[in-house]
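INFO  loader      accepted 1 record
INFO  loader      residues=360
INFO  predictor   begin
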Amino acid sequence: MERQELNSSDEAAMWEEFDNYPINLQQKLVKLSKKNKKEDKSLNNPPKIEHKTMILSSELHKLNSEYRVEKLNKTLERIRQANEEGVKQIKIVIHNQTKKELKGTMMNIHRQFQQEFYMLKKDKESMFEELSAKIRAFNTLAEYFVHQNFIEEEYSICDFESLGKDSFEEEKERIKELKKLIDLANIRFEAIKTLNTAYKEEAADALKRVDNVNEEINKIRVTHNLAKKNLENIIGNREKEVLNDVQIIRSEYEDFKNRIMQEMHLRTLLEERQKLFIKNLYGELKNAKTILQNPTLRMKTYEKIRETLTPTPVEPNLPKILPSQLSTKDGDSRPVYSPFEPLSNRSTKSHRRTKSSFKP
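INFO  predictor   done
INFO  writer      dumping tokens
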């Protein structure tokens, strides 16, 4: 987060500097125009300009323009890095937020499903234990009945003739007692049968309940899978939205970068044009100074201007020669101005001038 705050502060400072840059450039241009006007007004008494100072000023201007271009490139690089870091931070924040929101819902669903599954499993285990206990009781009763039937058959097969008359009565009483025991065993057997049927019904009910529990578990599993799919779809849609936002930010950044590069190209062209214009002005000022300082050249210039200003008869067969088409010794054609001509006329014609015809 600290890195993001630093990038935002750097970006704000860069935009403030970028907004103030055209104002500073305009102020510099106004100062330069005022300086040129002052130099034009003081044309009769021009200052002494040395060649070294001109070279130093041009070099300084060139270094200043290169420094500004380098500074703009650095600001563009910082903007790009800040945008990339901002996009990464936005993506991470959105991913973490969605993850936290969906994690809470997933944990609640998982907790509810776990509790229901635990309760159903516990009921199932208790029913299985009860059913196994009833099966064990039924097996013990079956063993008891088998043992009673074996005793009854053993006593029925006994040879009563081998017994004596004294023991016959005892055996008879004993048989009666055994019959009573058999009747009691039959009663118990009937009771066990009824219990067995009841246990079978309870076991069938328990199996039905187990089937119902399994169906409920399957339903919960289906709902859980549907909720999971819905959450996955929500996460996918959120990721698509984030990617679309990133693509939009990236396209906006590319448009901004292209606009800045075009503006930088236009500014470099303007600077080159202004440098050429200032260079021409310096050359003209230097030529004017040499003309004004040299009496011979000044008189020649004055006579030439006077000749151009005086009307001369033109023969009808000869073509008319304009003052702007007069040629010098070097073959360069340029208009010649009077020292008494207004400065406004000179400034309007200065864009069409070439090298001066008078060389020191």
